[in-house]
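To the wet lab folks,

You asked to see what we're planning to order before we commit. Fair enough. Below is the target structure as tokens, and below that is the sequence we designed to fit it. If anything looks off to you, flag it before the synthesis order goes out.
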């Protein structure tokens, strides 16, 4: 194997020790939400032959942060016969490196959601996640703390869609789309859906002179459900994807009654 395909900077060797569970902490700035069902499963099937060492970062005060294995730690904490767990201990420089280690361990595991990767990426200083965060902040929006938790009109679960929209249509169009959805449907906790963000950004990118006030008025006069239903009818008749159908529906509503300054759907970014 060629040397350039191998990391030649493996870092310091970790210490392998048994660590008391009461000295292990979880940093929720980057860790995923604890899943009680997973903890119960580990407890039901608990056996040391199935218990792989957890990965810890030494804090310097005799305690540790777990960056891989929090469910195993919690199960051990609840087990009446266990007070310590086997651990691989490394020294990391603060929360940013811990979050980076969490990403490195978990990024290829399907169990880790894009939302978990997003929050960990922010703590680790990942440029893409920080860009998404900046665009959402400009719109007065943010990503939900966890999948299906804390839903509000200004919160989105569509991290991947937001990143793709930024790439295709730019930061300004993406931020304006999120802001329009937030202000038009302030009581709709599902307002920030990826397909809606993409559709609006497409219109804004292709129509520099479009009135945001009129777009907001058009959206406020309907609901997300009604808009999606009308778009689905168009999609079944004319084909195309959902984002195109929604863009066309909004375009038709915007242009209704206008003899000039009408908007076009615009080309789909590639």
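Sequence we intend to order:
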């Amino acid at each position: 194997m060629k040397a350039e395909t191998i990391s030649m900077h493996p870092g310091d060797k970790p210490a392998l020790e048994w660590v008391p569970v009461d000295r292990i902490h979880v940093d929720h700035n980057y860790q995923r939400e604890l899943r009680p069902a997973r903890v119960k499963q580990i407890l039901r099937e608990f056996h040391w032959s199935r218990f792989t060492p957890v990965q810890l970062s030494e804090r310097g005060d005799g305690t540790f942060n777990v960056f891989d294995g929090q469910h195993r730690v919690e199960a051990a904490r609840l087990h009446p016969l266990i007070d310590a767990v086997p651990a691989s201990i490394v020294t990391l420089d603060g929360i940013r490196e811990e979050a980076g280690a969490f990403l490195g361990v978990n990024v290829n595991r399907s169990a880790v959601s894009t939302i978990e990767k997003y929050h960990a990426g922010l703590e680790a200083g990942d440029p893409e996640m920080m860009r998404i965060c900046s665009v959402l902040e400009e719109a007065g929006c943010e990503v939900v703390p966890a999948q299906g938790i804390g839903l509000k009109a200004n919160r989105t679960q569509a991290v991947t869609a937001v990143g793709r929209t930024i790439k295709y249509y730019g930061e300004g169009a993406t931020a304006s789309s999120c802001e329009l959805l937030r202000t038009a449907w302030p009581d709709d906790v599902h307002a920030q859906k990826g397909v809606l963000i993409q559709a609006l950004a497409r219109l804004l990118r292709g129509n520099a002179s479009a009135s945001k006030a009129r777009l907001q008025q058009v959206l406020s006069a309907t609901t997300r459900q009604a808009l999606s239903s009308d778009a689905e009818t168009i999609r079944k008749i004319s084909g195309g994807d959902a984002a195109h159908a929604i863009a066309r529906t909004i375009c038709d509503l915007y242009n209704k009654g206008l003899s000039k300054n009408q908007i076009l759907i615009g080309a789909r970014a590639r």
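Structural context that might help your review: The chain has a mean pLDDT of 86. The two ends are 36 Å apart (CA to CA).

Thanks,
Computational group
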